Amino acid sequence: MKPGEYEIDFNERPYIAIWEVTQACDLACLHCRACAQPRRHPLELSTNEGKALVDQIAEMKVPVFVLTGGDPIKRPDLFELIEYASGIGVRVSLTPSATPLLTREIVHRLKQCGLARLAVSLDGSNREIHDAFRGMSGSFDRTMEAIEWANEVGLPVQINTTFSRANYGDFDAIAQLIQKKHLALWSVFFLVPTGRGKLDQLLTGAEFEEIFSKLYCLSKHVSFHIKTTEAQHYRRYVIQQQVQERQTNSHVETSAKVTDTIGRAPRGLNDGKGFVFISHTGEVYPSGFLPLSGGNVRQQPLREIYRHSPIFRQLRNPDELSGKCGACEFRHICGGSRARAFAVHGDSLAEEPCCAYVPQYYVPSLLPVRPSPAVLPVL
User: Fold this and answer.
1) What single DSSP character describes residue 119?
2) Cα dihedral sign for 273, 278, 284, 287?
3) Which of 76, 119, 322, 338 is the most buried if burial means most Cβ atoms within 10 Å?
C-alpha cells in the first residue's frame, strides 16, 4: 500500500477499476454475470482503445486495475496491454479462466510482461463441486496448477470464491484447502442474481452472518488477507466484533500477513463509489453486476463519466438509500450491495436484501430515519 491510497476522494476517482476485456470464455459458470460465450464480440475495444483507457487509468491514479472477462486470455493482445500498462506505472491484476488456454508458459509470460497479481477462481473444495460450478471438467485441477505456476515465478496469487446455494455447505472444506496454498488474498464473492446467477441461489441474511463469522475468525490466524465482494455489510460485522472484543478485553492479535502489493480497499467503497467497471464494448457501469450505464469511453473520458454521471453521483450519496440501508448507522461505511438491491428489488437504492441487521432507528412502517453517521471507534 502506498502512502495516500486510503485518502482517495471517491467523488474524484475510483479505488478499483475493472476492465472486461472480452466476454469470450470456454467455461459456462453457473453464476456468470456476463453469460460468457466462446467467441469474441466484434465491437470489443480495440488494442489502441484499450491503451487509451489504460492512459486514463494512469492519469486518474487508480490504485487497483483489473483485467477480467470472459477469459482475458482469449484476447491475442493481452500481453501487449499488460506490458503497456506496467510500463506507465499501472499495476495490473488478471482473472483468467481455468481452461486449457491457461498454461505454465502463459503464467510465466504474464509475469515477464509485468503482471502484478494473478487471480484464479476456486468454488469448491474438490473436482466434483468446483467443476460443476464452472461447467467444465478439469477446471479444478487447472486452478490448482495455476496457483503452483504463479508461485514458481513469484507472481502473487489471489483466490476468488463465489458463495451461493450451490456451495454454501462446502465453505469449511474450501477454507481448509486454501490455507494449504501460498496466496496474498482470498476474495470472497457473494452471488448477485444477474446473468446466469439465479434468485433461488441467494443465501439468506442469517447465512451471510454465518459466513461472516467464519471469515472473521479465519482472518485472525491465516497468513493471507481476506476481503469480501458484494457483501459490504461484512464491514459492519467486523466493526461490531472489534467493539465487542474491546469491551470484553478479548481482542486477539492477528497473525502476520504476506505483503499485499495491490493493497486493501478503504471503508465505504461500493458500487459506483470508489468502484468502476468498463465493459468489453466500453460501457461504464458502477459494477459488473449492476447494469446501469453511466456512459461509454468511446464518447466520453472515463473521469467525466465517473465524476458526473447521474447514476454514479446518486450511488455515492448514502442519504439516497431507502429501507433498512437508509436508516442504518453504518450506511457510510457499508451501504449494502447496490447491485443485489437492483437485481432483487429493481431499485439500486433499495435496501440490501441479504442483510440480517436491523438498524437502531429503523421503523418499517414509517419513512426511515436518517441519523447522523455513527461515531465509530478508532480501530
Assistant:
1) E
2) negative
3) 338
Query: Cα–Cα–Cα angle for 9, 19, 90, nearest 5°?
Result: 65
Peptide bond before 70: cis, by omega within 30 degrees of 0?
yes
The answer to whether the Cα torsion of 280, 274, 259, 91 is positive or negative is: positive
Cα(212)–Cα(218) distance, integer angstroms: 10
Which residues, at least 6 apart from 119, have a Cβ–Cβ distance to it below 8 Å?
Answer: 66, 93, 94, 95, 157, 158, 159, 160, 187
CA–CA gap between residue 31 and residue 16 (Å, rounded): 22
Question: How do 16-20 and 157-163 pair as beta strands?
Answer: unpaired
Could you tell me which residue, 5 or 228, shows the higher pLDDT?
228
Q: Which residues pair with 189 in a beta bridge?
A: 162, 229
CA 226 to chain centre: 12
| Residue in 119, 162, 109 with CA at minimum distance from that of residue 143 | 119
Q: What is the pLDDT of residues 299-346, one digit of tens each?
A: 999 999 999 999 999 999 999 999 999 999 999 999 999 999 999 999
Largest Cα separation within the chain, whole Å, is 61
Q: What is the DSSP letter of 259?
A: P
Which tens digits make up the pLDDT trace of 231-251? 999 999 999 999 999 998 876
Percent of the chain residues topping a pLDDT of 70: 88
**CA angle 64–376–253, rounded 5-degree value:** 70
- The answer to whether 208 and 345 have CB atoms below 8 angstroms apart is no
